[in-house]
Amino acid sequence: MVADLDGDRRADLVCVYPEGKAIVDVALNVGGLKCGRPYQAVNPWAEQCLAAATGSFDDRPGEDLIGLFADGKLRLLAGFKDGKFQVSKDVLQVPRIPKHPGLSSGGSRPWLFGSDGMAFELDIAAGTCTPRRIPKDVVWMQGDGLRWTMLRNGSIGRLDGEKWIPTDHQMRLRASRPAADGGSLVLDESMPTFADAATIRFLADADADGDLDLWTYRLGSEAHTANVVTLQRSKSVDDTDWDHDGLTQDQETALKSDPLCADTDGDGLIDGWEAGEFRGLKLRELGCHPARVDVICLLSRFEGLDDAVAKSEIEKCKAYYAKLPHKNPDGTSGFGLRVIWLDEIKKADQSKPWWELRDALIPGKWRGMVHWMQLTPWGGGQADQLGDGGGCGGGTDILYATFLHEFGHQIGMDHSGFWNAEHNPIYPSLMNYAYSYGLNNSIKNIGYSTGALRNLVLNERQLDEVIPLPFESVKFLAAGPYGYRMKQEGDRTLIDWNWNGVYGERRVRADINYGYSTNAGVRDEVDLSQCGPTVFTHNGHGFILYGKRPIAAKGGEDASFAPDRPGKVVLKKLLEPKKWTAPLELPGPQAIGDPYGISHAGRIWVFVPTAQGLLSVTLSDETAGLKVLKQEFVPDSQDRIPTGDVYKGRLYLLLWNPKNGHFGYRPIDARGSIGAYQDFGFTSTNPGGLTVDTKRDRVVIALGRNQDANRPNRWQIRRFRLDGGYLVQESMAWIEGEGGGCRGPGRLTVLFDGSADAGPEGRLMVFGRGDPTGPHSCGYVATQIADKTIRDGWMVKRYYDEWSQSRSAPSACWWNGEILYVYRWVDGNPSRDGILHVGYRGSGIQPDPMGDHDDVAFFANFGIRSSILYLNPE
């Protein structure tokens, strides 16, 4: 709603959140120029507000607010002063609550009405509620005396007493509401900048000139501009300053600015400010102009950052903004980055968060006019998105890159071009982490995207390897960080999205936005675990195996299972994404290490390391739930860590000894008979993983070896054939080749992909934990690709980000054509340390489309002005 709450003759914005204990937000009008920052004026008001309206309901200065609540009481907020309502009271109890109730705004005697034809005329001062008759299906009513009404079908009419007089008018959008005051009615004032959407309109004086201005709350569906409040001022013929921006019509003509728009260039700076000064800020002297986009940024350099480097880098930024392909209203191009250097920030204050420094260093009277940025000696940074503060850092070239990136956040951009999928390869913007520091392998090429590829939209589940664009327009895809293999074919380009060595395929599936990292989709928090989890499938259902201890860990403490920290093993069944059964606690001795689970011969097999040896537990999955069928110890399995998989009807249970690295297996047939132990004759630094290459009919085992003193826990794959019931090694290869660096501690999981997208030979995928030097680290997947010139035919991707770390290795399995991916999160909060995160799209292939975005147009048309939307009071 709108109402002059503080009695300064300028309408303010009011919003009532109706759910629960209703909240009232207020944004006061600052001098008819901008809104002040919204804040909660009342919290709570009362339970479940059904309708609300504004008007002059008592004799105090300023307008008031009334609300109808679920208990049938009408409550009043009045006497607004010093940012608060001084009066909050119940004023009357209505006899009945109409169906779909509403309250009419405007005047002193509002009506309560409903779609069932029930209505009451309310006298707030007298506390009376008089029944009235109205047509059915009334959805809007406004005005005093002669009341304007609207029916659900969009028909407009007037109420003269209780007589409804229809007009010839009808709202084009039934979800919208007109605006009225006395004899004035505004039906559907079009705003060509925006698409049609539901709108709620009010007539109220914005600038204390006695004219009614049109306020529009727009409820659209498009990005960014969907939910905005706009103001269209009335123009008085004899007024010398139609838009109340401080400039006369003659001055506007001379400046080539718009006399009907207070902010001609849409940069959030009022035309009159840019033509002179405001609140002591000399905008004209800075180079601002009312018909050219300008952004003003206060800069605070950290002590320790070379002053000459900082100034040189900012000059490069100013030159870049000046060359942006945006045409200003006066015919010039680019944005004007206007900077003001503040005193340097001494080392004593450098530990303070940037937002605290921002609040201290931006003069309060300039909030809503300027931005602020701290400049540090270190790379990277952080900033508000669509706000006025942040920080960045680095030396030559790096500071240039981080400033453009973090300032891009301030003036509205995110990392993805507002697509759900981040790091997408066809968004060549420095806002995209994939291209923050380089495009076409050079930092000198970075910049904001202009949306040149806006017509190319990609979906990882249905990719076309024929791009209908010339090679020159997409050749950056062949450079870092993706390095896609591409071929020019006339005016189009062939690309190998799935890295299988075949070009020009149609409807392929591939993870294509992994330049910064890949991910397994939205993470489901399943439970807490104190051991490494295992995911596997049985009869088409997913299962997760993990462990719990009765004693919670302290902050930062490793609570993982160990001989002196035993715990119970539990099993959960996945019913559907994000829906699991209650955990089943397995009987038997407590576990002292990571358990392992797998499906074999129609049963679930769980192997639990205990102080007595490796306990084998078989279970059935019946209608009534999971049922334990048998328990027995695996012979001679003291201190062994289990993994394995099924090949030709036998479960090959891998057994690894962490004390000496000895590595071997026991076959288990379909009847459950456990065969003799067979040693591989080599050691491993990691519990290995086993899978079957169905293309070559070979067993593949992933393991770890110390390649040299500088490369411990290097990942290997070894291939085996079955000969006389024994696994016989045929080949060995380092993942990423002899010169590679793929390594990390903990259990390895290996999967084989035999789909068409994996190419004629299929591909291996090895999952594990990286960084063998720390107590916890990120999860990674090493995937085979067809191009052997790239790291010996391997591509290694991190999962999620650098903060997604675990004390144990992740686990993965095929599930419904996708990959379940699970790891346990490391958190400094003991109550959250060890939370199991499950991702249901471990392939990295996401359902959301991705594409390019015109950053420059977004900045000019929305972001810059919206980033300094709220003006502080004087």
Number of strands: 57
User: Based on helices, strands and strand pairing, what is the structural class?
Assistant: mainly beta
Whole-Å distance between the termini?
A: 24 Å
Which residue ranges are poorly predicted, with pLDDT under 50 across at least 5 consecutive positions? none
Question: β content, as a range?
Answer: 35-45%
User: pLDDT average, as an integer?
Assistant: 94
Q: What spatial order of strands do you see in the largest sheet?
A: 25-24-26-28-27
Largest sheet: 5 strands, mixed
Question: Mind telling me the C-alpha Rg?
Answer: 34 Å
The best one-word shape is globular
Share of residues in helices: under 10%
The number of helical segments is 8
Descriptive terms for the model:
8% helix, 8 helices, 874 residues, five-stranded mixed sheet
Commentary on this structure:
The structure is a single chain. With 874 residues, this protein is mainly beta. It is built from eight helices and 57 strands. α4 crosses α6. The chain is globular, with a radius of gyration of 34 Å. The two termini are 24 Å apart.
Strand and helix layout:
Layout: E1 2-3, E2 12-17, E3 23-27, E4 29-30, E5 34-35, E6 39-42, E7 49-55, E8 64-69, E9 73-81, E10 84-93, E11 102-103, E12 111-113, E13 118-123, E14 128-133, E15 138-142, E16 147-151, E17 155-160, E18 163-170, E19 179-181, E20 184-186, E21 198-204, E22 213-219, E23 227-232, H1 249-255, H2 271-274, H3 283-286, E24 294-301, H4 307-322, E25 336-341, H5 354-361, E26 371-376, E27 381-383, E28 389-393, H6 398-410, E29 466-467, H7 471-474, E30 486-489, E31 492-495, E32 524-528, E33 534-538, E34 541-548, E35 568-576, E36 579-580, E37 584-585, E38 596-600, E39 603-610, E40 613-622, E41 625-633, E42 641-647, E43 650-656, E44 662-668, E45 678-683, E46 689-693, E47 698-705, E48 714-723, E49 726-734, E50 749-753, E51 763-769, E52 777-784, E53 794-798, E54 805-806, E55 811-815, E56 818-824, E57 835-839, H8 855-867
Parallel strand pairs: 24-25, 24-26, 26-28
Antiparallel strand pairs: 1-2, 2-3, 3-6, 4-5, 7-8, 8-9, 9-10, 11-12, 12-13, 13-14, 15-16, 16-17, 17-18, 19-20, 21-22, 22-23, 27-28, 29-31, 30-31, 32-57, 33-34, 34-35, 35-36, 35-37, 38-39, 39-40, 40-41, 42-43, 43-44, 44-45, 46-47, 47-48, 48-49, 50-51, 51-52, 52-53, 52-54, 55-56, 56-57
Helix pairs in contact: 4-6
